Amino acid sequence: MKKRLTALALSALMAAGPAMADLVFPSLSYRTGPYAANGIPFADGYADYFTLLNERDGGIGGEPIKMIECETGYNTEKGVECYESTKGEGALVYQPLSTGITYQLIPKATADGIPVHSMGYGRTSAKNGEVFRNIFNYPANYWDGASVAVTHILNQEGGDLGGKKIALVYHNSAYGKEPIRTLEELSKKHGYELTLLPVDHPGQEQKSQWLQIRREKPDYVIMWGWGVMNQVAIQEAVNIRFPMDHFIGIWWSGSENDVKPAGDKADGYKALTFHNFGSSYPIYDDLQKYVYDAGKAAGAGDQTGTVLYNRGLYAAMLAAEAAKTAQEIHGTKAIDSKMMRDGMEALEMTEEKMSALGLPAFGPEFKVSCENHGGNGFGAVSQWDAAAGEFKMVTDYFQSDQDILTPLIEEDSTAYAKENGITPGCN
Amino acid sequence: MFYREAGDFKTTYQQDNQTFPIRFDRYRYYAVLAVAFLAVPFLVNDYWANAILVPFLIYSIAAIGLNILTGYCGQVSLGTGGFMAVGAYACYKLMTAFPEVSMFIHVLLAGGITAGVGVLFGLPSLRIKGFYLAVATLAAQFFLVWLFNRVPWFYNYSASGQISSPEREVFGIIITGPNAPSWAVYLFCLIFVAFAGILARNLTRGTMGRTWMAIRDMDIAAEIIGVNPLTAKLSAFAVSSFFVGISGALFFSVYLGAVEVGEAFGIQKSFLVLFMVIIGGLGSIFGSFAGAAFLVVLPVVLKLVGVDLLGWATDIVAHFQLVIVGGLIITFLILEPHGLAQLWRVAKEKLRLWPFPY
Known about the structure:
The complex is a heterodimer.
Chain A: H1 2-19, E1 23-29, H2 36-57, E2 65-71, H3 76-87, H4 99-112, E3 116-117, E4 135-136, H5 142-156, E5 165-171, H6 174-177, H7 180-190, E6 193-199, H8 207-216, E7 220-224, H9 228-239, E8 247-249, H10 256-259, E9 270-273, H11 282-292, H12 307-330, H13 337-345, E10 348-349, H14 351-356, E11 366-367, E12 378-385, E13 390-393, E14 398-399, H15 402-420
Helix pairs in contact in A: 2-11, 2-12, 3-4, 5-7, 12-13
Chain B: H1 13-16, H2 23-43, H3 46-72, H4 80-97, H5 103-122, H6 130-150, E1 163-164, E2 169-170, E3 173-174, H7 182-205, H8 207-217, H9 219-224, H10 229-256, E4 258-259, H11 261-264, H12 267-280, H13 285-309, H14 314-335, H15 339-353
Helix pairs in contact in B: 2-7, 3-7, 3-8, 3-10, 3-12, 3-13, 4-5, 4-6, 4-10, 5-10, 7-8, 7-10, 8-10, 12-13, 13-14, 13-15
């Protein structure tokens, strides 16, 4: 079965090879539905970076980039349909921006030999590259995020969390349930009490959860939300007058679209991040010249410089750098998905590289290896400044608690390997 | 010209009572089955199978189920999504508890379990009708989704709350999981569709179908002439949920492979199957297929036309899908309330005489 699959894949690749000189990067975006407010800036950033590479450099290594956008609406069935329709075009890497779709694609993409880059989202234990050969989640994952949030709270409370109460408001899906295990382990280690408050998709109805928070008065609230759930949660927190600087969201709950509806009262809301903000980077000059002024900006062109737009640029940049690495390793410009996977596994992000690309000190340095597909787990905390209308970094990058996380990742990935008959190994 | 009915005499009661008495219809039916079973598996590629044919087959089973309940028996039900979830989770628990048993048995048993749950949630139909019954089944929808989210036993205590279908084989061919060949998945679903279609057609043609239709048309008069409303309504719920459960089990195990109940079996799913039945035609087996084909294929066609051919932005095309489906539902309800099946019936009557006008 495996031999037949590889033979089929090889023949498909050989057939596709000479005809397809383009590097295909599918964009499984969602510009409609309840998560569109956050999906649009990311998709715009992703598309604009590739447009920039095409316009300024003629592609990657001289190979033009073809970006195929497919609307998923954050819906799993549409995600599968988009995957099936684009994989035949020679797709190099998939970034579904949805934990649900990623869970779907993990077995499919592994069987088809196409890598999936789930940048800072699920499946967390994909950090263990020995089990998840085709799945990468650098530079940080959800357990890193949970640990970073708790460490920050620890620092705020002077190093002692005994007797404190932390509530987790989470999207009632695989995405939102990811941090629960880590937060429970950390509560054993630090002695705080954890309350879990699920919010059903799409997250419009949160009154009862926030009434409970008003009643129980936890010291801190951590949020794992996405889309309209973020906006509603922050508005509800404002309504119950919860202290905003004790409200910390994961990096997917920290965008301007989430805080602006609540107005000035959302000032002080904190969110984690694994990259920097703003548009004062040299790459924006290039973007202005080659993309915006040339009228090739994706979408409405009004999301530039926002947190999620930057994240889209970052994701596209990492994909392009992995493609470059793949071209170097294999000595050919027209790479396929298997070479792309090798490129991603050999990727090393250094400060020199980022500066050369026009994004100096944009994110943490990391190196991907077969054992570690998830980066080093560095995150930082940012805070919303309503008067200035932007998120500002309030801490430096610091690492998550690797003592707690490493055994958890080992445990989860071994369970997955056993369930699916995968022999862990790096060959 | 197509229908040559001259000389087609029936000499036995069996011939007279068959489902397709006209020879042309019968041969066309055999031809469709032959093409579906013998030709398509060799021609289909991954995209066609996984994105178009398999969802069409799965949704047509669900549409047949809902058509029996709403079209033939007149009990409005908005709980289809929840019942599909029951089928999926039952199949998952059976697959993980009894890995040696054949997938055919698991899917049928999942249908049986869903039939039991359907009878339970069908009990309110003995007291309430129409819109109020729709609300009671809506309660079933939300309750079942909540149940599968809340009780960890159903998803085997997995941390993510998702259920994923382990790899299983049927006659030596892998049928679930990512390594299953698309033609095998297609054939597996086709076998269930053929089974469901034949079973439903014969049930609705027989006594049971007539009791359902009697209840639909005027339940008090039916009760007076001796139709037992309890058995008729509960049997409608049972048979309908059996089909919907099979559909849900297939949806999870061979089509998606991993589902999250809130997202895959939400109220949207109930509405989707209801629209398939409305557009296809209430009270018609062919209508279930027509409606399922329409609503599965239409978004894909719109996407191909809008994005690939016309080059529009993906979000505009996605918004257009909603507009067009909504517009079609309104159009159908006003112009042709009996749906695509009625259009087909009228066309067939005209075709039987063509080229003569009468």
